[in-house]
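Q: Convert this sequence to structure tokens.
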Amino acid sequence: MPHVIVKLSSGRSEPQKARIAEEITKAVMASANCTEAAVSVSIEDVEPNDWVERVYKPDIAGQWNKLYKKPGYNPL
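A:
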């Protein structure tokens, strides 16, 4: 039962978020061989000025060994 949490810079519309969740659901279903009912997706808006403290440090730099797709930037 995959649950995916997406953290985005604020500013995406509700239709954009719905499309992101839809595309992630399709990708997870295909790659994890599970049904749509098994997948859940949440989207968290993060203000750009808060990105480093709320996302980059704890979830990216602090979890580097768990990342399967690493970012191509370093805001520090």
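The domain at 3-66 is CATH 3.30.429.10 (Macrophage Migration Inhibitory Factor).
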